[in-house]
Specification:
Number of strands: 15
Structural class: alpha/beta
Low-confidence stretches: none
Distance between the termini: 13 Å
Strand content: 25-35%
Largest sheet: 7 strands, mixed
Length: 328
């Protein structure tokens, strides 16, 4: 089968299309014929040699796919899924390939109203946003939420989930065009971080009360201002690192705010943990996708052979929502 491999760690030119062996199924696994693979920030880091896959995971890049079930091992046949079912899968690696082997409890059935290619834009970003805002962040109706990188894949999913919960939503982005897009999704307050201080703006908007929760998809560059913008007993949820990994921490302000800092990744969790998160997420979200309240936000679809262009496009930070690779 065809798969995208790395010649060596480095730039987008290191990505090459190769012929590799089809994965062999283990008990409880299904084989998915991939229709689309999703791009994520972690893919760029892994390509550069900065984010190795967890022990036992495929060395191939790629954390999510959509496609159809082609084979099932014993055990998976009792899962309720069947050969030919359209599914989307959460992976620890291996997504940049024509076929993927994954445990049946790491997949979700694609709703009939969502095209199979577009369904690939659901798994990683919506499950991550749900994990952060609902399971870890305990976001409540009426609370004030700041989402950094609001036009990113996780950002667009987080806006939809926060809107459903009934939170008041602030977002940051680097262009007025992206901010307008966030407003269409349901964001209430728009901040161009390149032209104004998001901390000052939030303190002005909230009469110096600050926001109860911050979903930070950027990292170190925003951390000092995050503490300023945070309300008493607020929570900061750290997911992304595009803005750097090291910063200074003012412990006095941290203590004064009685702040909670929560760092989290989805990829490194055990299959059992991810299975439980997926189960909870899909119980919460499936009907919302069927009714159209939730929807995947797709910016651009590249042919798999054009993966270099897709990575360069993602690095340009021009996208609004998900970037996908199409295999057929």
């Amino acid at each position: 089968m065809k798969a995208i491999t790395l010649r060596e760690a480095g730039g987008a030119d290191a990505l090459i299309m190769s012929e590799i062996e089809e994965p062999v199924l283990a008990p409880g696994e299904v084989l998915i014929r991939t229709q689309a693979s999703g791009l994520n920030g972690a893919d760029l880091l892994q390509r550069r040699g900065l984010y190795p896959p967890p022990k036992g995971a495929s060395p191939l890049i790629g954390l999510e796919v959509s496609g159809t079930i082609e084979k099932m091992h014993l055990g998976a046949d009792k899962s309720g899924f069947h050969i030919g079912d359209p599914v989307m899968a959460l992976l620890s690696g291996g997504g940049y390939a024509e076929k993927v082997a994954i445990r049946h409890d790491q997949i979700m059935r694609v709703p009939r109203n969502i095209p199979l290619i577009e369904a690939c834009g659901i798994t990683e970003v919506f499950v991550t946003a749900y994990l952060e805002l609902v399971i870890l962040g305990h976001l409540q109706k009426g609370e004030r939420l700041l989402i950094h990188a609001g036009a990113s894949g996780v950002g667009t999913a987080a806006i939809q989930i926060a809107k459903n919960i009934g939170a008041e939503i602030w977002v940051t982005a680097g262009s007025d065009e992206k901010l307008g897009f966030c407003k269409e999704l349901g964001a209430h307050h728009l901040i161009n971080y390149k032209s104004e201080s998001f901390a000052e703006r939030i303190l002005t908007d909230t009469d110096k009360r600050g926001v109860n929760c911050i979903l930070d998809l950027v990292g170190a560059s925003h951390f000092p201002a995050n503490l300023e913008a945070l309300a008493l007993d607020g929570r900061i949820l750290h997911v992304g690192l595009s803005g750097g990994t090291k910063t200074e921490l003012d412990l006095r302000l941290l203590l004064a705010k009685r702040a909670s800092l929560i760092g989290s990744t989805l990829r490194s969790r055990s299959y059992e943990e991810k299975a439980e998160i997926i189960k909870k997420f899909w119980a919460y979200a499936e009907q919302k996708f069927i009714t159209g309240e939730f929807h995947p936000v797709i910016d651009k679809v590249f042919a798999a052979k054009d993966v270099k262009d897709a990575h360069l496009y993602m690095e340009s930070q021009k996208n609004r929502g998900k970037i996908l690779l199409k295999w057929s």
